[in-house]
Write a structure and sequence with these properties.
With about 350 residues, the protein is mainly beta. It is about 5% helix and about 45% strand. The strands form six sheets. It has an eight-stranded mixed β-sheet with strand order 2-3-4-5-1-28-27-26, with no helix packed on it.
């Protein structure tokens, strides 16, 4: 990977205290605005570019609580939502949680039976099981989530999938993915990491499971319930399921993020297990025109870039187009050299091959 240049992402004191800047999980550029999510909160962050043409820094952070717009499924509205993907399409900003279970870690202070007991503990969090669509309006020249917006004469409000349409519930009987629902994400269980929206199509990338080297992307067709404008529903595909599965040859890697580029999808890929690398960007050619469940291999997919990674740090977690031929890459667990004294973290801008 050759870095074209770097940009600073500068966060305020609250996000620094919550370690959002070192737990970045999703990013999407929106004009001179950068939408960011960390995986330890139930918020979205908005950063503004210091220059509209070529930003050297995104700062002036504003935090938006998801609970201020939609009813979160958890009892504690401040419980982390583990937002792993952001998408901006039309007048809406989309966010998806990981939907994953997690296994307790053995840390340095844990020994013996207590350590083994922690490693056996698996837990889930309801707030991770979200798919949210927020209306965006121009407020004082800045894209901003709002509680209502008019689009083509229709009023739209923040909307989300309800428990009845929860993806974990819908996948329970799936022949490929159902058996992996009880398994934590870092153990090759279900783990959503990435969302892309094109027209009425919503694509969700799965970090896991990866089956015999094949990664999964789910395609959804959400719509707003006519009787409840705060509720998203899912249309059935001709296969009589509310989702469609595409399997991708990512050389044994899982999906870490998705980003639309014309009719193609750029795919940030990395290990599904707790490993550092390899990390790559692939291109799924013609993804937005696929009209059947697709086996994405051979000429349908190409390896575009190798992304650098560290040992225990610098894990690429989010990508966004920056112009027509550049990709912004943000990192979870950034290396110390990426952190500045004033609370900024350094992100990379890389050139796509021509």
């Amino acid at each position: 990977m050759t870095v074209d240049y770097t940009v600073r992402l500068r966060f305020g004191e609250t996000s620094q205290a919550a370690a959002t800047h070192t737990n970045l999980s999703a990013v999407r550029l929106d004009g001179h605005v950068l939408w960011i999510a960390g995986d330890e909160t139930a918020t979205l962050e908005r950063l503004l570019a210091d220059h509209p043409e070529k930003a050297a820094e995104f700062g002036d952070e504003t935090t938006f609580r998801l609970a201020d717009f939609v009813d979160l499924p958890g009892d504690d509205e401040n419980e982390e939502a583990d937002v792993e993907g952001l998408a901006r399409a039309g007048d809406f900003l989309w966010a998806v949680g990981s939907h994953s279970l997690r296994r307790k870690q053995i840390k340095e202070q844990h020994e013996g039976r207590g350590a083994l007991k922690r490693l056996a503990r698996v837990e889930g969090q309801d707030n991770r099981q979200i798919l949210v669509r927020l209306p965006i309006a121009d407020v004082d020249g800045v894209p901003t989530p709002v509680r209502e917006v008019e689009v083509d004469g229709v009023r739209h409000r923040p909307a989300a999938l309800r428990r009845r349409d929860n993806l974990r519930s819908l996948l329970r009987d799936d022949e490929h993915l159902g058996p992996f629902l009880p398994i934590p994400g870092k153990d090759n269980g279900l783990d959503i990491e990435g969302i892309a929206v094109r027209g009425d199509r919503v694509y969700l990338g799965l970090r896991g499971p990866v089956l015999r080297g094949w990664a999964f992307v789910l395609e959804l067709r959400p719509y707003v319930d006519a009787d409840d404008p705060t509720r998203l529903r899912l249309r059935d595909f001709p296969e009589r399921l509310p989702y469609r599965k595409h399997v991708l040859d990512l050389d044994g890697l899982g999906v870490r993020d998705l980003c639309p580029h014309g009719d193609d999808l750029l795919i940030l890929a990395g290990p599904t297990m707790d490993l550092d690398g390899p990390v790559r960007i692939y291109r799924w050619h013609g993804a937005a025109t696929a009209d059947i469940p697709t086996i994405v291999r051979d000429d349908l997919i190409t390896r575009e870039l190798e992304i650098a990674y560290g040992e225990g740090d610098d894990h690429a977690e989010g990508i966004s187009m920056l112009g027509d031929d550049r990709v912004l890459v943000v990192y979870d667990s950034p290396a110390r050299a990426r952190l500045t004294d004033d609370g900024a973290v350094i992100a990379d801008v890389v050139l796509l091959p021509r």
